[in-house]
Amino acid sequence: MGTAVANPARLLATLSLALRARPAGPIVVYLRYAAYFLEAMILAEFLHRRGIVHAHNHLGDSSGTVTMLAAKLVGIPFSMTLHGPEVFDAADIWRLDVKIAHARSTVCISRDGREKALRHCLTEHSWKVVTIPCGITFAEYATDNVRTGRKLLFVGRLVPRKGVHVLVEALAMARNCGIAAELDIVGEGPEYPLLQSLVADRGLGDFVVFRGSLGEDGVANAMSKADVLVVPSLSEGLPVVIMEAMASGLPVIASDIDGIPELVRDAETGFLVPPGDSQKLAQALVRLLANPDLARSMGARGRMNVKERYDAERSAHALRRIFAQGATSVLF
Question: Under which EC number(s) is this enzyme classified (predicted)?
Answer without folding.
Answer: 2.4.-.-
